[in-house]
Write a sequence for this structure.
């Protein structure tokens, strides 16, 4: 069976690069959600005035990976204790957020957040909200790390994150 998860944990390039490596993940789309503007562009998002977060939408095979496992990886893939920032990426568009697709996902997300609190020295600030409209990001943002391995951001931000996570996954 297939299910969809929508998560924001900073730059969508980083989050996508993590989840594309997870067995059972069928596809990932980078995009925007949670704001008040329709059909936002990356240029719009960068202003911080749209209310949207950079997110990824993951389609996964529940026979190979569960929603709870997706959430476990999510907690380790970013710092959910920093409000509106991940590293040098600052603004509401980089907030930590779980957009649930149904009541079961909401319950599991809240449970996972509560059970993961011990992992961090500060309180988790991740929002858990119903998914509004998901807007797919421009094509050049899709599979960014795989298409641009020499990009400085990929080398200095994404690659160390993947190395660190390899030890935990």
């Amino acid at each position: 069976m297939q299910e969809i998860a929508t998560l924001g944990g900073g730059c969508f390039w980083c989050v996508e690069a993590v989840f594309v490596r997870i067995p059972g993940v069928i596809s990932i789309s980078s995009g925007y959600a949670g704001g008040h503007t329709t059909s936002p562009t990356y240029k719009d998002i960068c202003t911080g005035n749209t209310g949207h977060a950079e997110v990824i939408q993951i389609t996964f095979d529940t026979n190979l990976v569960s929603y709870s496992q997706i959430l476990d990886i999510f907690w380790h893939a970013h710092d959910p204790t920093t409000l509106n920032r991940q590293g040098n990426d600052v603004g509401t568009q980089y907030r930590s957020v779980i957009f649930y697709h149904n009541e079961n996902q909401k319950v599991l997300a809240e449970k996972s957040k509560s059970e993961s609190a011990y992992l961090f020295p500060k309180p988790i600030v991740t929002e858990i909200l119903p998914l509004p409209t998901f807007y797919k990001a421009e094509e050049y943002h899709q599979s960014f790390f795989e298409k641009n391995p020499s990009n400085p951001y990929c080398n200095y931000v994404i690659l160390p994150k993947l190395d660190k996570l390899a030890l935990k996954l």
Observations:
- The mean pLDDT is 95.
- The helical segments are 12-19, 42-46, 67-77, 103-116, 144-147, 152-166.
